[in-house]
Amino acid sequence: MNSLDPLFAPRSIALIGASPRTDSPGGILLHNLSGFRGDIYPVTPAHREIRGLTCYPEPAALPENVDLAVILRPAAEVPAVVAGLRNRCRYAIVVSAGFAETGRGALQEELARAGHEAGIRLLGPNCLGVFNPARQLDTFFLPADRMRRPRRGNVAVVSQSGAVLVSLLEGLAKIGSGVSRAVNYGNAVDLDAPELYDYLAEDSGTDVVLAYLESVGDGRRFIAAARRLAGRKPLLLLKAGKERSGQSAAFSHTGRLAGRYEVFSSILQQNGLREVGEFEELLDGARALSLQRQVSGARVCIITNAGGAGVLAVDACMRGGLETPPLPRDVLEGLRQSFPPFYAVGNPLDLTGQVRDADYGKALAALRDHYDAFLVIALTGVAGVTLGLADILVKFRAGISKPLVAHVAQGRLAGKLEKLLVKSGIPAFPTPERAARGIRLLLGGGG
Amino acid sequence: MNSLDPLFAPRSIALIGASPRTDSPGGILLHNLSGFRGDIYPVTPAHREIRGLTCYPEPAALPENVDLAVILRPAAEVPAVVAGLRNRCRYAIVVSAGFAETGRGALQEELARAGHEAGIRLLGPNCLGVFNPARQLDTFFLPADRMRRPRRGNVAVVSQSGAVLVSLLEGLAKIGSGVSRAVNYGNAVDLDAPELYDYLAEDSGTDVVLAYLESVGDGRRFIAAARRLAGRKPLLLLKAGKERSGQSAAFSHTGRLAGRYEVFSSILQQNGLREVGEFEELLDGARALSLQRQVSGARVCIITNAGGAGVLAVDACMRGGLETPPLPRDVLEGLRQSFPPFYAVGNPLDLTGQVRDADYGKALAALRDHYDAFLVIALTGVAGVTLGLADILVKFRAGISKPLVAHVAQGRLAGKLEKLLVKSGIPAFPTPERAARGIRLLLGGGG
């Protein structure tokens, strides 16, 4: 079985179309690969050396075979470039655009043939390629000051669209999530979602997969691979091109027809595959599933210091098919006696603006055996909530194997508290509804 | 007709329960009122002077009548305090909690009677009161370092929940929106949503109203007032307590039964009132409606430099009942000739990663008469997008009376570009779907 390791973790790369100009893709890419843990061979007839690296006029002149070639030449030249790489490498990323997505289907077919005849597996064309922070592999032609990269972590991202991939990676960086592998496969002339999914299913560094797609090549193959992957780890799918005009937009974007969405969607459902509704839910899903393990269950306990936010969280839980059952009578009586009379002891448990950090701990301890998951809401605008709340939640969570997520908001402490929580494995969300969505994913529910 | 001006823009305030302690509500409130444009009379028997202000032992000792009293005494004392204010003021805010929301319905009825007998209109109890940045009126017992206040602007916020109000205000501050009036009415023993809505309908400084509610006192009165308000300016309603357990949570929160949501929701719809689905949509609505006027129409043009984001925007528009019709044939031919062959000229119009700022301007100029609204997507990770794009969009928008919103993301320029746009009246959103929601609101559609 082909592991795609030469693509995601190559030991050597030939960069076809390297350039010293830092405002050209070939120059940006060379710069972004400066930390790469392996050998880099710039290929260009125009220079003898760039950034201290010896250049080679053509692939045939390379001193050794490479694991991966990255091709940045104009579209019309690419089939010949691929043919020239025969016996020099097994994988090539075709970054160049200007194939089926601009109506040049014949050129794309020519590219496919060239790859097949040369025995080279192709990623792309019209793609950004791959990102693997563990190896400092980064084939994106976006300078560092234009795109913030996420740290190393356990989230993999597979996207048909380059822009969506980049937005997702920046979003993950912003919320402090880390990435194991990221890949944009563009027009998918050869390598497609199924093989990438199979690779990620086996990848031990990946715990959750975010997938964006607009179209599917071979439907059966796609579903089979998606099922295999989802059987191993959480897979969150965002399918765009849902509506009629979205479908034609998706066609001009990657040159493949999106297919009837309703059919696709119902097949996903029949196969137990999780589909998310919009972009933001992919990020929220990563937030939750990269930090905690999925368990089964539906009974959620909500503990809040803000009545309204608690009510919104209950609404969102119920909408998502979860339950927020009342507190067991004996626990209720016990908490009523130990809390001030104006705390509303129920589910949600409203500790009011008078709350102190320790009250959350007291409530959680009393309720830990009675619910499947805990949603803690802390608006930090009140005096009794401090950064010490993070310790209390982290300690509680360390003693259970149930999901605990937080909605932290409002107040200058919120940002700091959120960071402390995330660092210790507790996902924090900016609204009650998004926190409820996090809980739903952790309880194995759909997006 | 009672204008509620003494409540929202009083010339003088008596603060019953003032304190020098900056960690007590009475002290925080006094501090927050330090910039108040009017007279403040601290009332407390324990001190002769606080922060340079003469204190009065009881309301009867006040040197003159005041427009507004703010009451911070323990719940049990409040009815007597109100009785003591007879002939001293016409409005009082009861900040104190511990009434119907904690099962003390009799005490709340006693409070209602006291207000009625004293001829004093009451806001609350169990509320934060009012915020009016134009007068530096701020009755929230939250220190400035615990809650960021928004600037002065044209968005009014009316919330039954104090925590939701505070979260909304911080959210508005974060996105750069300004506030005209904000009010939290809590248990609504007297003043309720209808009178507050009527006041805001008349208030010339308010262009859009965000309303959060969990329960409605007199349904007919509520609907009538909401209709009057929505007839004058956009009103976005978020009703919490939608689900059965949400309803009982809402009861313990403000002591009023939430009613059957489905009935309420269908009545809203029948009356053409706009309901939003969750918290974040209130903020997104404010972003759009505070900057641009609603118009009628449904035909949206999407111009993007990121194919995938364009497809997601089309999906979201279609889901929201909008149309994204193809480009007129002659415009399409013209743009095809003036743009590089790899731009995907359609709707969405995909200018690809090779875009330059001026391309957006060229496309908008060619399409301005053919659509009702424009959704511009700019991922700033590519070299051709600069802050100059703001100028181009602002100039285009100055010449039309149609909505133009942006989805700006990804790339270190995004934050700056977003700020520039918002400052010049163009709402910018962090995801394609949320931008589409903004367009939908500006085209008069539901949330």
TrEMBL record, chains A, B:
Record's keyword annotation contains Transcription regulation: no
CoA-binding domain residues: 7-99
Keyword flag Metal-binding: no
One family name in Pfam for this protein: CoA_binding_2
UniProt KW keywords: ATP-binding, Ligase, Nucleotide-binding
Record InterPro entries: Acyl-CoA_Synth/Transferase, CoA-bd, Ligase_CoA_dom, NAD(P)-bd_dom_sf, Succ_CoA_lig_flav_dom, Succinyl-CoA_synth-like
Name the record gives this protein: CoA-binding protein
Organism in which the protein naturally occurs: Geomobilimonas luticola
